[in-house]
Amino acid sequence: MKALIVEILATTAVALVILALFFSAFRFEPDFARTVFMCLGVNTIVQGGRALIQLIELRHLALEVVLEILYICGVLVVFGLVSDVSNVTPIPILIILGALTHIVAVFLNVASDRHDSMEINKLIQRRNRGKKEKEEPAEEPEE
After folding, report:
1. To the nearest whole percent, how much of the chain has pLDDT over 70?
2. Is 142 left (phi over 0), alpha (psi -120 to 50) or beta?
3. Comparing 132 with 70, which gets the higher pLDDT?
4. How high is the pLDDT of residue 111?
5. What does the buried/exposed string (b/e) look like for 101-117 if buried means 16 or more CB atoms within 10 Å of the residue's CB?
6. How many whole angstroms separate alpha carbon 84 and alpha carbon 89?
7. Which of 29, 79, 92, 135 has the CA that lies 20 to 30 A from 116?
8. Domain locations in the chain?
């Protein structure tokens, strides 16, 4: 549960940075508080759905990624139409921003997973070295 909350907040932060860059580039001035809470709501729904997709454990990673992106796009389209965001930001732009946010989040996860796996490998190597030292008999001094 803690990991899911961290994931929601992290993707919300990434999405807000991307939105801020987008709004700055095109000189939009949206209602900031509304945008933050909408972004949090969308990311909560998206991360919940992604968690369910990952429970399915598809055999092909590419199929899982495509399914996640289609799910994210679907959530963004529905949320954009329901919340009237499509009047300010066109739906295709929402989809591009959502895909971009997902790509950045995936890269951050890969970097974190790589760091974790390197730490685990170091611990395994230390443990194996310790076992080898215990298995090697001490040489008796020659008289």
Report:
1. 85
2. beta
3. 70
4. 72
5. bbebbeeeeeeeeeeee
6. 9
7. 135
8. 2-132
